[in-house]
Design goal:
The chain is built from 5 helices and no strands. The chain is mainly α. The chain has one domain.
Amino acid sequence: MDPRGFLTTNLGLDLAITAWLLAQVIKVVVDFALQKRFDFRLLASSGGMPSSHSAFVCALAASIAVLNGIRSSYFALAAALSVIVMYDACNVRRAAGEQAKILNYIIDHWNEMSPSLMGKELKELLGHTPLQVIVGAILGIMVGGLGAVLLG
């Protein structure tokens, strides 16, 4: 039986949301430590340290492991989802960010380009480095696992 949550009626989902929110707050703190300024837009952004996507899915998987066991189909599904999300964060989305950097460089240095194409810069911080994904995963496992043990 799954205990009731504190935000929704599902503890696993609540712990995943908590891990995501904590990761987003940590991004603001890390950015402040590096840039000496608060950028609260990071609370709603993708990319950066730690990966909130990884924290979310790993918190969900860890809480399901504690609440339903690692042999449950629920955990298998959550673990598979976690691997897919983390792979995407490290590879597909990161590659898109690298392409955005190149396109932004081309736009900045191509004087003959139409002004209508030069109006908006592409978002370069889309994906994560492997370290960012690992830290996000560790954060998620800690929030999901410990939260489920303490609140489940």
